[in-house]
Structures are given as C-alpha cells and as structure tokens.
Amino acid sequence: MIILRILKYLFFLVIIMIIITFSIVYINLDYKMYPLKANQELYSKNIWEIDTDSLAEELVKKMTLEEKIDQMYGEKMYKSIPKFFGNFIFKQRFPHIYVGLNERLNIPPWVLSDGPRGARVLDKDVNAVTTFPVAMARAASWNTNLEYRVHDVISKEMRANKTNYAATPCINLLRHPGWGRAQETYGEDPWLLGEFGVAAVKGIEKNNVMACPKHFALNSIENSRWVIDVSVDERALREVYLPHFKKVIQKGKPASIMSAYNKVRGKYSGSNEELLTNILKNDWEFDGFISTDWMYGVYDGIEAINAGLNVEMPWQDEYNYNSIKEGLKNGEISIKNIDELVLSTLKTRLKYAFSYDSLSYTHDLILSDSHISLAREVSEESMVLIKNDNILPFELGENFKIGVIGRLADTENTGDLGSSNSNPPYVVTSFEGIKNYHINSNNKVYLDEANDINKSVELAKELDQVILIVGYDYSDEGEYIMSRGQMLKSAEAKKLIGAKGVGGDRISLKLREDDEILIKEISKVNDNVVVVYIGGSAIDMSSWEHDVPSIIFSWYSGMEGGNALAKIIYGDVNPSGKLPFTIAKNESDYPYFNPYTDTITYGYYHGYSLFEKYRKDIAYPFGHGLSYSKFKYENFNLVNYNSNDSILNFSVDLTNISNIGGKEVCQLYVGFENSEIDRPLKLLRDFKKVYLDAGEKKSINFKINKSDLSYYNTEKNKWINEKIEYNFYVGGSSNENHLMKISNFLEL
C-alpha cells in the first residue's frame, strides 16, 4: 500500500514537472513572430495600391470551410492556453495571439493589445511602455486633441511591440459611479463620451492599428457582467445609451467593435441580432467586424452567427468546426452566413495590412522623450481642483516642513490590473513628486504612510503644509474576475456569495474608514491641508469636505502623476481639469445600482439630467473644476440661423480677469424645458478648451447640428425635431448659476 501510494505521488509529481518543463520550453522557443503587414514580394505593385476588397473576395472563394471557420475565432485552445499561462507565470506578460493567420493564402494575422492607458502586449526585449492617466482622468481634461495625441502614442508603441489591434476605447456610459471599471471610460455624458471616443479611434488608426470601441452595449455593472439582463425602453436606448457608439462608428470609423457580456432585453449582447445587425450594421451602416469580449462572449454559436457576430475571442469555443458543420447540415445557418461574416472581417483586416506606413515602428519609439513628456502633460491637464479656500497654490517658503501623509502617499498606483493594465518603467508617486519639487530648496519633505494615526497627528502639528493622499487602488475597484457559476449564484441571491475577488464594483462611494478618520483628525490640528484623491470615479465627501480647505482629484495619474501633482500644488501649472460626472450630495440620489443582481432596468435619466429633472441637490456639478484664474463670459449670441441651415452657430466673449494665464473649458448646453414631451432640462452639445493670458479676451465659437436637437419617436421609429423655443446656455459648468442663457424659437 505504501509503495503504491508513493508511486501515485511520484506519478503526479512527474506530470507536474512535465507541464512546467513544457511551459518553460514553449515560451522560450521564441515562437514565430508573424509579420502583420502584407508581403510586398508577392505583388507586382505597391501593396497600398491594391484593391483589398476585391482581394478579400478572391481569398474567401479559395478558402475551405475549415479555413473560413479559422477566421472566426482567436486561436485554438491547445495553442493559446500554454502561451497564456506560461507567459503569465514565467515572464509576467501578456502573449501575442495571432488571429486569422492563413499561411497557405498569405493572409497576415491581427494581434490584439489592450490599450486604455498604454500598450499591454510587449515584444521580446521590451519591458515597459509609456503609461498615461486612466481614461476618466483624460476625460477630465476636456481636451479631445490631447486624447488624439495620447492614442497616437499608444498605437505607435503597439506597432513597435508588433501588435496591430487595440481593444480600446471603452465608451460605456457611467450610469452609476460605483461601477468598477469607471476609470476606463469618459464619464456620464453621451456627448462627452462620443467626442472623446472619436478622438481616440482616430489617434489609434493613424498608425494603421485597428481600433475596437467597447463594450456594445449597456455594460455599466462589473460584478455580474456575465449574467445580468438589462431592460431598457427604446427612447432611453437610442438617446442615452447608444448615441456615443453611433457617433464613434460614423465619425471615427473604427475597424471593429467589441460586444458586451451582458444580456440586453433577454439576449446576450454577443448574439443579439437587434444590436449587432439591425442597429449596428443596418441603421448605422457599420462595415467593420464585431468581436466578442474575452471568454464567455458566446453561448450559442449558431445564434451568434445569425445575429452577425464575426469573431469569437480569445480562443475557439462555440465557433467550432463540428457545431458549424452541424448547423449547416440542419439548415440553421447557410454558407452565405459564414461567407458574409468572414468577408467583412477580411476586407477590414486587409485594408490595414496593405496600408502604407509612414514610420518603421522600431523599439526606439517606445518611451521616447516626447512620449514621456506627453504623459506628464496629460496628468497636469486632467487633475481637477474641486475646492480651494484660498490656500492653493501653496507658498514656496524657506525652511518649510512639508508632510505627504497617507497609506497611498508613496504607492505606485496607476489603476486597475486587469485588461487595462500597462507596464510603466517607473511611477512617480505623490511623495516622490513633492520631494523632487523641493530637491534644490532648504525645505524638508516628510513621508508618513499613516500606519499610526496618533503619530500622523503629532507630525501634522509641526508641519507648515500638509498633503493628504487618500483613495483607492486596484484591489478596491477595477476589472472583476470570478467564475461564471459563482457570479450567477451571487446574482440570483442579489448579494455576494463567497469571497470577494480583487477589484469589481464599489458597494459604497465613501472613502475607506481609515482615510476618513485621517482627514478628520489631521484637519483638526492643521489648517494648511490639501486632500488629494486617487481613484477612478465620484466619491461621497459629505462627512469631511467641510473640514478641509482644498481638495484635488488626481485620479490614477500614470507614470508622471507625482510630478504633475507637485506642479499644480505649487502653482507652476494652473489646474484646468473639469469633472466628467456629477457628484451627488446624497448617495441614494444616484440611479439604482446593485453589483450582485441578474436583472436591472436602465432608465432615461442619470447624471446631471436626473439631478436637474428632479431638482435634487448636488455637491459638485458636471463640468465643475476650479482654476487659479478667473474668467468672465459676455455677449452670448446665436450668430446665424435659418430653417434651411443644418448648423446653428454661436459665439461668446471670454475674458481672463485675473493676473495669471489659464485654461477654461467653455461648455454649451441646449435646454428643452419647453418640450411637449418628457425630455432633459438641458444637455451638453459642444465644448471648447481655450488658453487665455492674464487679461486676454477671446471670442469663442460653437456649432450645433440641428439633428443634435432631436428626440427619438418610438411610434414612427425615427428622430424628430420639435418646433419650440429652445434655451441655449454657455458657461464653465452645468450649474445653472454659472451659465449665460439665450432663447430662440426654432422651426427645424
């Protein structure tokens, strides 16, 4: 018996050693890196001059059924799984996955890299990439040109890492600030989401990288994303949850789009014919291809094919040869269905594979000085000065004692560690940034990670300036990974079943208890305090905001965040960020949100439209953000309009009435208070970020398309413009007290 038991253990040990050895050998074989561009030697003329649509049609005709199916998924499991686990265990990196490769027909593959804040997949001998602040931070810049430049850099570094497909941008709506992946998107407003999404797509595709906006659609809960069924009426769907996707599709023209995990009206998004075919392909005329999110993106391959889903990722599961062959045999699908899906995918991919490259995309592009400088610029422009009772910028005195206090004060904290993760070469923490700033002065900078509240308070008594660092990290919010079975059990019970994983949705919008205690106790003994919040969305500050004179939202601010923070605190940079969401006074005023539910209804109102409609008090409005400058708005006018014009033109004079140059985000809203149907009181319809020197005056121009004043008529299934008196507002936030107003009756 003992011998048998020993032999049994030895057998299992040998098996484990074989698996480990295989994985090590496999990932170190330096598996072949396939070229992403077409082979010029195979063609008699320049590849960018070839009619790729015709070529795609020829290639599909030459494919066997198995080759066609091979175009419809990522990789076979037996290839992918060792690559995944081997790389994660031994190399701590994400592997290259070659999709759609066909060596017989000389079809180059596409290789995915996530990229909300930097390229994720790294080439051999590349250990780091430029890492930017998270998307929510960049939305707070209200600078779409900056977002375009960010994605230009990200796509250059993707190409240098031998990838050509970007699973970004995330343009899901921030319906509730507790959503765990809020940091990956651009806020609560569909207009802002759309404008930033278009900028991101254009920046990505400048370098012949295929963009993939995600997650289509109504994905705004993380913990139950694989099982939740979202109900929504048609007007809310068309006017609130889809317009940003429509704008990105029609103006950005991305190569692809990613379906969501959740159900919409009882059908999984990955096999939802209404979403994928009727709306996306037919109504919006999208001619790219649709990919699933990774794992559990398809539950019924035949249903997904009929719905118009092109590609299952990351490996073959439901899109397998046997089930598709059986579906063809039974008449559930036709070979025409397969050919159409493969053809649309191939046409798109070949367009990029055969396109002209203006750069060689070598490794020396990665982490160039200009890229790092841009990361710092984005951090500076995205931080939001929420509150300032005339203590910032801090004085640069002599022999000052300065304390950077908090458990996150010296933590490298760039955000979620899921699919949006990025590997920076370094991270300048808040403490390092403040310390660097004073390196050549006689001021002394103290670090206190608040392990002992009493010691922190005693230190604060002796300090001239206190910088409190509070907030979250990847363990508090972000992508949430757990088994689908466990997720289903939690959803059915409407509560967590089992141990909570890393990240996920936030149940409460309050800070951690130790952070709140720290703020309250330090503020009692020192009046010269600024609270710096690190995180990806709105928080409830009601229990402590009145105790402190200054608050900054620094977000997850990327690799240069600490340096940017120091420059803002000491006035080298004038803060110009604005909130991309509303902060409620009462957490209960937000829409219903339960991370552990299997059903939910998404309503017509959320964010500032909800708070304004129902006259709910708020803490800080959408678009709010303070500056060290002061700005004055004058002479707001509708410049020209007649019923034949499709564009409304507006102008306003903006003056910097302070003695310091600064940037202002001018926001234009349209009011529907006089509508005969239920509509928001007002909606954002244009914005401009402008710089003015001290005392400078500029005329700011805005444009609104008449179509952007319409609503969706569910009886006629079309967009309708009302003949009513519209109100137009301009100012520095959505707060009605900060806005100028004009009214005009329009016969549209």
Give structural notes:
With 748 residues, this protein is of the alpha/beta class. Among the domains are: 365-478 and 505-580, Rossmann fold (3-Layer(aba) Sandwich); 631-746, Immunoglobulin-like (Sandwich). The chain contains 20 helices and 29 strands. The strands form nine sheets. The chain has a six-stranded mixed β-sheet, sandwiched between helices. Helix 2 (52-62) packs across helix 13 and helix 6 (144-160) packs antiparallel against helix 14. It is globular and about 75 Å long. The mean pLDDT is 94.
What would the keywords be for this entry?
Rossmann fold; 748 residues; 20 helices; alpha/beta; four-stranded mixed beta sheet; Immunoglobulin-like; single chain
Please state the CA-atom Rg, rounded to the nearest Å.
27 Å
**CATH domain topology of the domain at 365-478 and 505-580:** Rossmann fold
Strand fraction equals: 15-25%
Mean pLDDT: 94
At the fourth level of CATH, the homologous superfamily of the domain at 365-478 and 505-580 is Glycoside hydrolase family 3 C-terminal domain
User: How much helical structure, as a percent, in the residues?
Assistant: 25-40%
The largest β sheet comes out as: 6 strands, mixed
The side-by-side strand order for the widest beta sheet comes to: 12-17-16-15-13-14
Per DSSP, the total helix count is 20
Give me the count of strands: 29
CATH class of the domain at 365-478 and 505-580: Alpha Beta
Q: How far apart lie the N and C ends? A: 90 Å
Instruction: Please tell me the CATH architecture of the domain at 365-478 and 505-580 by its name.
Output: 3-Layer(aba) Sandwich
Oligomer: single chain
Contiguous uncertain segments of 5+ residues: none
Structural class: alpha/beta
Q: Based on Cα principal axes, name the global outline.
A: globular
